[in-house]
Automatic annotation (TrEMBL):
One annotated GO biological process: urea cycle
Keyword Signal tagged: no
First-level EC class: hydrolase
Catalysed reaction equations from the record: L-arginine + H2O = urea + L-ornithine
InterPro entries named among the record's database cross-references: Arginase, Ureohydrolase, Ureohydrolase_dom_sf, Ureohydrolase_Mn_BS
Family membership: Belongs to the arginase family.
Residue numbers binding Mn(2+) 1: H101, D128, D228, D230
A Gene Ontology cellular-component term: cytoplasm
Organism the protein comes from: uncultured Sporomusa sp
Residues the entry annotates as binding Mn(2+) 2: D124, H126
Entry protein name: Arginase
Keywords: Arginine metabolism, Hydrolase, Manganese, Metal-binding
Keyword Transcription attached: no
CDD domains attached to this UniProt entry: Arginase
Length: 298
């Protein structure tokens, strides 16, 4: 039985659509904590961290303005890194509820310092591997993987007081299907292993997960799951920040989480990009809870 600590990271400033900061509270109110307590005797809900919620405007001649809301996002992920590190140091499983995907910079900074070779399964429609130089939008939600690998703006790269939280050979992308040109070059240059949504359809989610587990298990002493709900097809998860058609079904993703639970190799996890304000009938919130339940069945 895992000892689980739930922490909310109510961030929306890493992108441009208001609402993802509401997700932790809404997911809780839909019954997540009670559901987890039925499966695990030791579940602590440590509440939400206090993040800034106002957009940060700066002078147009400041080069850092190319990254939107850099200061409040940086402050937030530093706070998250500290809290997550405390949870891991206590021998507990951090379950982080986002928030937009920029929070992964803090999650990984907090987790990685406790492992020699942390692996990452990055479940997402996007590669999140942009830097200030390549990002079309300037949104930090598109930069967390690159920053955690040591590329990009110094504030984001050095969160937690150190660089290079993870290694490119310890990352597996699953479900990607909307990749910017700069991201594609980054992935190819760093030889990051990836399974596109087309790969999932072609060889099946079971084979994708088995190959990802086999690839990481022999190299890594811990594996963090970073799960962006936009990896799902919008028909199953309409309430996300940046929906992309042609995604993986909820049924297949639940199968994937069940397989990861069976292998018992995930040592920390975050679920991000649920936006209750654009959801329909709580469909995406319910999907997030179903996925978390499947991952944490043992």
């Amino acid at each position: 039985m895992k000892k689980i600590t739930v922490v909310g990271a109510p961030m929306w400033l890493g992108q441009s659509v208001f609402g993802t900061q509401l997700a932790p509270a809404v997911i809780r109110s839909a019954g997540l904590i009670q559901s987890l307590q039925l499966r695990h005797t030791d579940v602590i809900d440590s509440g939400d961290l206090e993040f800034k919620s106002e957009e940060n405007y700066c002078s147009v001649d400041d080069i850092r303005c190319k990254i939107k809301n850099l200061n409040p996002v940086w402050e937030g992920v530093e706070l998250l890194a500290s809290r997550v590190s405390e949870i891991v140091a206590e021998g507990r499983f951090p379950l982080i509820l986002g928030g937009d995907h920029s929070i992964a910079i803090g999650s990984l900074a907090g987790v990685a310092k406790h492992y020699r070779n942390l692996g990452v399964i990055w479940y997402d429609a996007h590669a999140d591997s942009n830097t200030m130089a390549t990002s079309p939008s300037g949104n930090v939600q598109g930069m967390p993987l690159a920053a955690s690998l040591g590329a990009g703006q110094s504030e984001l790269v050095k969160v937690g007081g150190y660089r290079n939280k993870i290694k490119a050979e310890h990352v597996v992308l699953i479900g990607v299907r909307d990749i910017d040109a700069g991201e594609q070059e980054f992935i190819e240059r760093n030889q990051i292993k990836q399974f596109t949504s087309e790969d999932v359809f072609r060889i099946g989610i079971h084979n994708v997960i088995e190959e990802a587990v086999s690839y990481l298990a022999t190299q890594c002493d811990g594996i963090h799951l970073s799960f962006d709900l936009d990896v799902l097809d919008p028909s199953d998860a309409p309430g996300v920040g940046t929906p992309v058609a042609g995604g993986i079904s909820l049924k297949e993703n639940i199968e994937a989480m069940n397989l990861l639970a069976k292998h018992n190799i995930i040592t920390s996890a975050e679920f991000v990009e649920v936006n209750p304000l654009v959801d329909r009938d709580g469909k995406t919130v319910k999907a997030a809870i179903a996925l978390i339940e499947a991952l944490l069945t043992n």
